[in-house]
Write a structure and sequence with these properties.
alpha/beta, 10 helices, 7 strands, 43% helix
């Protein structure tokens, strides 16, 4: 089972692939869409939710229609997502984390998932002092983090990815950390290799926490995949 997240760089706002795949394999796949915020996005999100979409991605990096999370249309999408119990996946750079904090404080009942942990600065290795602004968000209970293949590769380049996962778990708790393969955006490793990296990165955790990291936490956030309420 998997959550299909619309890739901005490949398809832009054309979500038909992820929508059709999730509809065809309902129960095994869920879809997260990206909407053009200049094209009545709240109405379009309602329509896509009726068509099976289970989340919306606020992609605020190099997006011609959305550059900030406090954009009125982005806030409108959050309101619709909260109403329809959709997940909001946020893709930002680390200097935009104050915008994310404001969103988390405004929509306290909304589940928000941060892509790639906000691309933190991992240089210098643990305890990752240059990523302090990320760890400060641990006090926001409605935030979960995606520890993607890309992020784990960055941690691997500066040391041991297990150190990063341990640090994230210490701050946020094991139940708010989700592994993401970053497939098929990652081209230098197979899916099997990306999975092995994820397994290695969480290998110091308890068996229950490892299961959560590798899948059970995502099943809880996307219950239509069979993970329960």
């Amino acid at each position: 089972r998997a959550v299909l997240v619309q890739p901005m760089s490949a398809y832009g706002f054309d979500n038909r692939y992820v929508i059709d795949a999730a509809r065809r394999h309902s129960g095994r796949l869920a879809s997260v869409v990206i909407l053009d915020t200049a094209d009545d996005p709240a109405r379009r999100l309602r329509a896509m939710a009726d068509d099976g979409a289970s989340g919306v991605r606020l992609f605020a990096i190099g997006n011609p229609t959305l550059s900030r999370l406090d954009d009125p249309e982005a806030l409108g999408l959050c309101e619709v997502a909260a109403e329809l119990d959709l997940r909001v996946v946020v893709t930002i750079l680390s200097d935009q984390l104050p915008e994310l904090r404001a969103m988390l404080e405004r929509f306290t009942e909304l589940t928000i998932v941060l892509d790639h942990c906000g691309f933190p600065d991992l240089s210098g290795g643990p305890p990752y002092a240059k990523a302090a602004d990320l760890f400060e968000l641990a006090a926001m209970p409605n935030l979960s983090l995606k520890a993607s293949g890309y992020l784990l590769e960055q941690a691997e380049a500066t040391g041991d990815p297990r150190d990063l996962v341990d640090r994230l778990v210490a701050a946020f708790g094991a139940d708010r950390l989700l592994w993401g393969s970053d497939y098929s955006q990652t081209h230098d490793r197979s899916y099997a290799a990306l999975l092995e990296l994820g397994r290695t990165a969480c290998s110091r955790l308890s068996p229950a926490a490892q299961r959560g990291f590798l899948g059970e936490n995502a099943l809880r956030l996307w219950p239509r995949l069979g993970g329960g309420a």
